[in-house]
DNA sequence: CGTGTAAGGAATTCTGACACG
DNA sequence: CGTGTAAGGAATTCTGACACG
């Protein structure tokens, strides 16, 4: 019923050069964070990496953590926790939507 | 008051190869439509073109028009009209917001 | 551990031009 | 008018490795 028709934020279309420009990180750093499983760019047929805006946001977060001296291993753990929280939030949202729909199931005939 | 903090849709970050993949158009066609002032990619320092998701949407529209046999010159005119309409719509929106704000100026103390 | 760098190769993109129609 | 293509050059990206610490 509810579609994400244009999730530009997650489309993997940006090359590493632009990502470097946008984040201020070196190619070496960007590739290394991939090696450490912090980001997951896609590849085109020829093997060049493609990143999304989400990846760029993640990289900025990573850069901040690194400046604080946090190791990639720790950052990885923290990001896993974030993902779990996010899943929980969605579960909660679904439950609320369920209640909401139940409540209005029988008297939703006028407003579109 | 209302900010577009992350207008990913208009960020010029995509190279012509990806645009070609996404639209199905050839490099030649994409560059030609720029020459005819239908799209306006940016350039990085070294001169390579960078497109936005908006540009890609425009290109798809252009491709559809071209298939119908519409010439680039006509397409250009049509797109100018679209822009004008869009401006008018915003003017209307601003007027409505003005009235809305005036109406609630004195009794907006509870709900955020 | 995290990052820099030189190395060699492969893929990308650019421009201006000739071609066809 | 709109698009294809071959041409030559410049810029981009890739991998694996050595280096420092």
Automatic annotation (TrEMBL), chains A, B:
<keyword id="KW-0805">Transcription regulation</keyword>
<protein>
    <submittedName>
        <fullName>MerR family transcriptional regulator</fullName>
    </submittedName>
</protein>
<dbReference type="InterPro" id="IPR047057">
    <property type="entry name" value="MerR_fam"/>
</dbReference>
<feature type="domain" description="HTH merR-type">
    <location>
        <begin position="13"/>
        <end position="81"/>
    </location>
</feature>
<dbReference type="Pfam" id="PF13411">
    <property type="entry name" value="MerR_1"/>
</dbReference>
<keyword id="KW-0678">Repressor</keyword>
<dbReference type="InterPro" id="IPR009061">
    <property type="entry name" value="DNA-bd_dom_put_sf"/>
</dbReference>
<keyword id="KW-0238">DNA-binding</keyword>
<keyword id="KW-0804">Transcription</keyword>
<dbReference type="InterPro" id="IPR000551">
    <property type="entry name" value="MerR-type_HTH_dom"/>
</dbReference>
